[in-house]
């Protein structure tokens, strides 16, 4: 029987990152992913490595600080897939005062400590080429830095590095049951061809994202406090709306923000939404209301904005956010909550939430 120090369930960015870290520390690691790497939430993001500028409004300073520091780490270790990007934030005085945005950007520039990216500054959108696609009544704006990333490739390269450090990475392999045995786990893995085999693991990490609570209960036999709120985020892709490699951060009329990003040279990526779900769908899809919301937000700023007929492709993912009792889906913390479980002496760590 194969024996490991750690069994990681889930092959998204969390599972792959944990496997890489553990293998790099000399642990014997095996990762089991029921489908393909990055097949769910981790391939349905806005493709950004960012600190979360809008989280400053929620006073989530620690999350922003940690995220900005991680942004610097990613720039150093993966410059081939993490690309600096400038973001243009047109000022809408009806939503947020200019002083608030300026103060938030000043804090964003400095809260993460040392940085390699240029700082923020104001811009006259009437006289700067950055304002060319925007409506003529938009005069004042701000420019700041964050990063773009190929999210799926990031997961795959992280898993590849974990494998190079000795981890066993199994795709299309579902962990269907795990039983404690003398303070350890006996886990049954089912492969895509229907065959099964059992592995021995000292500990288990449940990194299954939206399925974390289900995995706790059905696979690990744990009744945890996995109070997940499932929030769908959707994106649309259109023909490119403007020239340049910069992005736009638009303030929506519900106080959320919407990104407009350059995408594969010829396209624009627009997102995202916050739609709370009561149950987990097999395959999340965008609704007509979400398309209308994204198009309407862009139309509030751009001279020429897309309509639903201009949408070439769309995709949606589920954020498994930890329920912190906030009333609005957009206000729920994007921070992680880690819970260590003990079932008859066998230890399991469940990863809830995260951005």
What does this structure look like?
This protein has 355 residues and is of the alpha+beta class. The protein is built from six helices and 18 strands. It has helices at 13-24, 61-77, 98-110, 151-164, 212-219, 288-299, and strands spanning 2-9, 29-32, 48-49, 82-90, 121-124, 140-149, 168-170, 173-181, 184-191, 196-206, 228-239, 247-251, 257-263, 267-271, 275-277, 313-322, 336-343, 346-353. The strands form two sheets. Strands 3, 4, 5, 6, 11, 12, 13, 14, 15 and 16 form a ten-stranded mixed β-sheet that branches. Strands 1, 2, 7, 8, 9, 10, 17 and 18 form an eight-stranded mixed β-sheet that branches. Helix 1 packs parallel to helix 4 (151-164). The longest helix is centred in the N-terminal third of the chain and has 17 residues, at 61-77. The radius of gyration is 22 Å and the shape is elongated. The two termini are 37 Å apart. The mean pLDDT is 95.
Layout: helices, strands, pairs:
Blueprint (H helix, E strand, L loop, with lengths): L1 E8 L3 H12 L4 E4 L15 E2 L11 H17 L4 E9 L7 H13 L10 E4 L15 E10 L1 H14 L3 E3 L2 E9 L2 E8 L4 E11 L5 H8 L8 E12 L7 E5 L5 E7 L3 E5 L3 E3 L10 H12 L13 E10 L13 E8 L2 E8 L2
Parallel strand pairs: 1-2, 1-10, 2-7, 4-12, 10-18
Antiparallel strand pairs: 3-6, 4-6, 5-6, 8-9, 9-10, 11-14, 11-15, 11-16, 12-13, 13-14, 17-18
Helix pairs in contact: 1-4
Mean pLDDT: 95
Order of helices and strands: EHEEHEHEEHEEEEHEEEEEHEEE
Number of strands: 18
**Straight-line distance between termini:** 37 Å
**Helix vs. strand class:** alpha+beta
The share of residues in helices is 10-25%
Radius of gyration: 22 Å
Our count of helices gives 6
Overall 3D form? elongated
Could you tell me the strand content as a percent range?
35-45%
Q: Are there runs of 5+ residues with pLDDT below 50, and where?
A: none
How is the main sheet built? 10 strands, mixed
């Amino acid at each position: 029987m194969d024996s490991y120090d750690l069994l990681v369930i889930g092959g998204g960015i969390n599972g792959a990152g944990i496997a890489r870290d553990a293998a790099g520390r000399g642990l014997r690691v095996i990762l089991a992913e029921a489908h393909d790497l990055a097949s769910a939430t981790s391939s349905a993001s806005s493709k950004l490595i960012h600190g979360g500028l809008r989280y400053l409004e929620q006073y989530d300073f620690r999350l922003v600080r940690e995220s900005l520091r991680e942004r610097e780490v990613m720039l150093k270790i993966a410059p081939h897939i993490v690309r600096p990007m400038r973001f243009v934030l047109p000022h809408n005085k009806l939503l947020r005062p200019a002083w608030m945005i300026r103060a938030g950007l000043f804090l964003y520039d400095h809260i993460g400590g040392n940085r390699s990216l240029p700082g923020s500054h104001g811009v006259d959108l009437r006289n700067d080429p950055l304002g060319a696609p925007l409506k003529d009544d938009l005069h004042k704006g701000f420019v700041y830095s964050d990063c773009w990333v190929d999210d799926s490739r990031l997961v795959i390269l992280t898993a590849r590095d974990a494998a190079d450090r000795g981890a066993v990475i199994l795709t299309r392999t579902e962990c269907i049951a795990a039983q404690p045995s003398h303070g350890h786990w006996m886990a049954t893995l089912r492969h895509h061809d229907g065959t099964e085999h059992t592995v021995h693991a000292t500990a288990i990490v449940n990194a299954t994202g939206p399925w974390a609570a289900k995995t706790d209960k059905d696979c690990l036999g744990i009744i945890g406090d996995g109070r997940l709120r499932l929030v769908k985020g959707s994106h649309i892709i259109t023909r490119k709306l403007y020239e340049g490699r910069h992005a736009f951060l638009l303030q929506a009329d519900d106080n959320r923000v919407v990104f407009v990003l350059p995408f594969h040279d010829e396209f624009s990526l627009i997102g995202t939404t916050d739609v709370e779900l009561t149950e987990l769908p097999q395959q999340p899809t965008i609704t007509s209301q979400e398309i209308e919301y994204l198009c309407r937000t862009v139309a509030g700023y751009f001279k020429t904005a897309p309509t639903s007929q201009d949408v070439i492709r769309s995709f949606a993912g589920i954020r498994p956010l930890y329920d912190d009792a906030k009333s609005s889906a957009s206000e729920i913390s994007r921070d992680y909550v880690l819970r260590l479980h003990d079932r008859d002496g066998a230890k399991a760590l469940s990863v809830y939430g995260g951005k």
